[in-house]
# Entry
Amino acid sequence: MAVEKSRTGSTGVVPERAVLVGVSLGVRSRGNRAGVSGARLAAANARTAGDELVRPEEFASPEVVHLPGGGIGSSPQAGAMPGLDAEESMAEFRELVASAGGHITAELMQHRSRPDPATLIGAGKVEEIAGVAASTEADLVLFDHDLTPTQLRNLESALPCRVLDRTQLILDIFARHARTREGQLQVELAQLEYMLPRLTGKGKSMSQLGGGIGTRGPGETRLETDRRQIQARIDHLKGELEGVRRVRKQQRQRRESVPVPTVALVGYTNAGKSTLFNCLTGAQVLESSRMFATLDPKLRAIELPSRRKILLSDTVGFIRNLPHTLVTSFRATLEEVAQAEVLLHVRDAASTYGEEQKAQVEKVLAELDALGKPRIEVLNKMDLLGEHEREGLASRGEVMVSARTGEGMELLLAAIDLALKSDPLIEAELRVPQQEGGVLAAVEAGMVVHSREYEGNLVRLKVTGPASLLGRLRKYRVRGESAPKTNEQVD
# Structure
């Protein structure tokens, strides 16, 4: 399933036309609802507006009173961000649609105190959406909410075009951006696990062919065949991904044999993680303003101010209501987060709902059992803020950077240095014979040299370096009056 596909024009593929439906639960509306009359006004406006964006809710403008603890999707099943209002939620949904390659023709918002079990939004709103979809010649209707199998079936019967919910849209974006074999396997697994409970059948078509009394029927139906084939494919994909996990585990074990700690970038989608990754490592991974541009993990080695080497990992971004099937399917990829020593939580400093995004990232980290790991809060995109906004953020303790301009990179690297505990920095004094060129080269490459003095055939060095490297050079360390002897002294 792709949002951008089928229709072709003189210039090639034409993006599918989509009607967006926002759903705000935990609110109470007063006054006249838009209803069918609103649909008629929207349809009339759509006929005159052509391809311009239509927002039918503007015709009725009902007064909305938020209940205590309300907000977009404030019910437990919605799982949305606390404090995220309707416009901000819809703005994020627009970005998702743009990332999927869709063209928005109309937007509607439904406020309800509780979801309708049959259609989520109620019969009146369904009729309104049907009118808007028909008048705008929409190819699909997108809901900024998850739909149950029953709701999805009822809506598809009532509307003149295809219906997709939020999870299906996110899965479509993941499918568009998966490039490696591993990423494609993970996306396919998530899609099949989402699809399996949504297969439907009726009456005798549900019967199986059996061998006993009362079990003889028309045989295995198309529905049952589909279910069996999908389940078999799911089992096969899980086996392949288990193989991927074993390979990754072996790779990590080889890396762990050499003490090189891993630092993972995590954060909300489109926070600038890949741009920061490129800025720190000099890599050329894809940078895009589209959501979920990065699906496959990237690892690059970088050097810290202490001369220690670390591996920096770029990971998939998180989002509000990230489908659980994706978290499960991408566990092989997200294990890099679970195994990292330090997490860099990259946040969009220019976002108007940064705290809500932070809460969603922490929710996913908790699912990965990584919430207790050392974490550095990194406020990215500081170049988009004014002077007063910067001053307001300066006292909060986060590391402020701009991955686009390179501002703040030195402070970030120093913060990583301080956060690493597995291979701590130690100050020491070394006395190394000048003929030990390999030892002197290792000191220069892996430590910060504060001073250097020559005493005959010895070089006296005051250094700060990782405990692992100093452990390998312990025979050259000065302890009291003892010091390693030169070859001449041994003779």
